[in-house]
Design brief:
Elements lengths: L14 E8 L4 E12 L27 E7 L3 H16 L8
Antiparallel strand pairs: 1-2, 2-3
């Protein structure tokens, strides 16, 4: 039985949301994991955003769906968190297949 909606991302069926942080490092990461591949789009804003793979979501590119979204701090540690997610997805047979 589902709990009452709380107007949060965790209310969306088919999504799992997790978070980890390191207070000493002052960095953290949130992960949105889709139960099934999902269509996605992105709009990058700001003066110096740190992104990874967002250009692949443009309509003319080869990526049609995503399996996860990583939201992290802009530090090198935060951006590197996406590598761990990509490795875990690959190990589970998910994500964009590369040769």
């Amino acid at each position: 039985m589902r709990s009452a909606p709380k107007n949060l991302l965790t209310d969306v069926a088919g999504l799992k949301v997790g978070n980890a942080d390191d207070a000493t490092l002052k960095s953290g990461v949130s992960l949105i994991l889709c139960d099934e591949p999902a269509v996605a789009s992105v709009h990058v804003m700001g003066g110096a955003p740190g992104t990874r793979e967002t250009d692949l979501l443009a309509p003319e590119q080869t990526v049609d769906t995503i399996d996860a979204v990583v939201l992290s701090g802009g530090s090198a540690f935060g951006l590197d968190a996406a590598g761990g997610v990509a490795s875990a997805l690959a190990a589970a047979g998910r994500g964009f297949a590369v040769a």
